[in-house]
Design goal:
It contains 2 helices and 2 strands, in the order H-H-E-E. It is α+β, with helices and mostly antiparallel strands and about 70 residues long. Strands 1-2 form a two-stranded antiparallel ribbon. The longest helix has 13 residues. The relative contact order is 0.23.
């Protein structure tokens, strides 16, 4: 989640070492990042299997980083 701030910090620094770290971290290591998205989940079901109580919770979804 905080990789956007990290990328911005490296871009603002704009020097050789910052660019090297950015290319290594985002292009070579290719770490995954995640975003939290709301998902409706069933908390309680009736005896015949129908959901009778719902709640929205945030669930993490992995995504690829943008290249540096």
């Amino acid at each position: 989640m905080h990789q956007g701030r990290f990328r911005t910090c490296l871009k603002v620094a704009g020097n050789g070492p910052a660019n090297l770290v950015g290319k290594l971290f985002f292009n070579v290591v290719q770490t995954k990042c995640f975003v939290l998205k709301p998902k409706k989940i069933c908390l309680k079901t009736s005896w015949w299997g129908k959901c009778i109580k719902w709640q929205v919770k945030k669930q993490a979804h992995l995504r690829d980083n943008r290249p540096y």
